[in-house]
């Protein structure tokens, strides 16, 4: 008795799959049906031009190549931005550490260097990233 909902769901799923496959088959007639289309004089009629599809393929390939170049340029820009950000963090950290140790009081030179270095890292990273917009 507990399996009745499962059986009903299985039957409904099977009917849905059968309905979809029927609908797909009806929507896409076999090529032989397309080839048999004729005009008033009995001559076969082409429904799609091969030349037109070749032009579409060439245009699609051109768009895909342009999109690929744009993606590569974006990746390279992000790499350059990250490299500049890292260099800015290093330079800012060193400069901040030196300035922090000089500004700190006589008993807190190392603490001043650490705090100045952290501030320098943050500032240097943001300044370097600002110059690289992707």
Describe what this molecule looks like in 3D.
The protein has helices at 4-27, 31-35, 50-103, 109-130. It is an all-alpha fold and 134 residues long. Helix 3 runs antiparallel to helix 4. It is elongated and about 105 Å long. The mean pLDDT is 77.
Q: How much helix is in the residues?
A: over 70%
Stretches with pLDDT under 50, minimum 5 residues: none
- How would you state the average pLDDT, rounded? 77
Order of helices and strands: HHHH
Biggest beta sheet summary: none
Treating each run of at least 4 consecutive H or I residues as one helix, how many helices? 4
Structural class category: mainly alpha
- Taking the alpha carbons of the first and last residues, their distance comes to 63 Å
State Rg.
Answer: 34 Å
What is the strand content? Answer: under 5%
Backbone shape = elongated
Number of strands: 0
Key traits:
single chain; 134 residues; mainly alpha; 4 helices; elongated
Which secondary structure elements does this structure contain, and how are they paired or packed?
Elements: H1 4-27, H2 31-35, H3 50-103, H4 109-130
Helix pairs in contact: 3-4
Briefly characterize the structure.
The chain has 134 residues and is mainly α. It has helices at 4-27, 31-35, 50-103, 109-130.
């Amino acid at each position: 008795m507990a399996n009745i909902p499962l059986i009903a769901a299985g039957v409904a799923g099977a009917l849905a799959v059968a309905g979809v496959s029927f609908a797909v088959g009806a929507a896409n007639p076999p090529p032989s049906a397309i080839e048999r289309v004729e005009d008033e004089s009995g001559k076969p009629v082409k429904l799609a031009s091969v030349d037109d599809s070749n032009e579409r393929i060439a245009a699609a390939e051109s768009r895909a190549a342009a999109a690929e170049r744009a993606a590569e340029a974006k990746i390279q820009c992000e790499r350059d931005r990250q490299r500049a950000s890292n260099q800015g963090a290093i330079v800012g950290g060193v400069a901040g550490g030196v300035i922090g140790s000089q500004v700190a009081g006589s008993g807190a030179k190392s603490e001043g260097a650490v705090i100045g270095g952290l501030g320098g890292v943050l500032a240097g990273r943001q300044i370097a990233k600002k110059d690289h917009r992707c």
